[in-house]
Amino acid sequence: MKSVLITGVAGNIGSALALALLKNENYTIVGVDNLSTGARHKLPLLTDRFRFIKSDVNDYREISAIFHANNFDYVFHFAAVVGVQRTLANPLLVLSDIDGIKNILSLSNNCSVKKVFYSSSSEVYGEPVSLPQHEATTPLNSRLPYAIVKNIGEAFFRSYYEEHGLPYTIFRFFNTYGPNQSEDFVVPRFLKAALRHEPISIYGDGSQTRTFCYIEDNIDTLISCLENDLFTNDVLNIGSDIEFTIKSLAELLIKMTNSKSVINYLSPLKEGDMTRRKPDISKMRQVLKRDLIPLEQGIERLIQQYSKASLIHGK
To answer: How far is the C-alpha of 156 from the C-alpha of 162, rounded, in Å?
Structure first.
């Protein structure tokens, strides 16, 4: 039996990872989240193989008690303040996540954890200096606190390996969407507006590009890296390599939902809205060993999920 700690377990990726791992009876999971951005309804049902603890990883005493009460084999550190608007509005809160990174690494090292996994972000690339964005090219040109913290986090993980021999894998997540993603993010925000026939608001002219990775592709890659010990002491882009403009995303969602929504153009954000995103996912393809789920297919799944939720809740 393998014991796994997932921090940020009530978020989009953390909750999906927990659900997927629980399908394998060889795993027991402790999930930690302070619920500042996560939500309880995303969590798996509590069982003898899954326990949830409301705790803040940035508080050493709290997370230390959890480590010393368990014997974790693996740790996924996914807890973080997320969302462009939230991180811009709360820069000091974002910077406090550095404490959580240090706590997780120190405790993992002292408690003989076999390997730690870190959720970094496409934000570490800042404005692209070359495309596609490859793991070996990190221009460090973003001044945003969120991007700075992710860069610092990566440096801490590398340093713990170099000094203490603690193995790691760093995942640089590009936009991953799925049923449990909050409306802080573009796909669920636009899709729910389209389903309600409400205006879809875009910052700027919508020419900025993003790529969209369905949650299943993300989680299958993470679990394969865990179970096959892949890309140890390395960095891995997790995302799709097919670019969509934000405007074309809105238009696609309106078409797929037969919506009466119109696009409402807002003033561009002063910062934090990078012009392009396109990862090199050569490493991810080596791990996944199948085609990624197309955006249209992923959106169809979301529409079905949202329809079921509406029926369940009488909305």
So the answer is: 10
Give me the phi and psi of 169, to 5 degrees please. -135, 130
Q: What is the pLDDT along the chain (315 residues), one digit of tens a residue?
A: 999 999 999 999 999 999 999 999 999 999 999 998 889 999 998 889 999 999 999 999 999 999 999 999 999 999 998 876 777 788 888 899 999 999 999 999 999 999 999 999 998 988 877 889 899 887 676 778 888 999 999 999 999 999 999 999 999 999 999 999 988 889 999 999 999 999 999 999 999 999 999 999 999 999 999 999 999 999 999 999 999 999 999 999 999 999 999 999 999 877 667 788 899 999 999 999 999 999 999 999 999 988 876 644 444
Query: What's the burial of 147, exposed, middle or buried (CB within 10 Å: 0-12/13-18/19+)?
Result: buried
Hunting for tokens 């996540």 — which residue is that? 97
Nearest to 56, CA basis, from 43, 84, 37, 28: 37
Any idea which residue has 């995103």 for tokens? 277
Can you read off the two tokens belonging to residue 274?
């990078």
- Give the pair of three-digit tokens for residue 312: 């369940």
Please list, in sequence order, all residues whose beta carbon lies within 8 angstroms of the beta carbon of residue 214, skipping any fewer than 6 positions away. 176, 177, 178, 292, 293, 295, 297, 298, 301
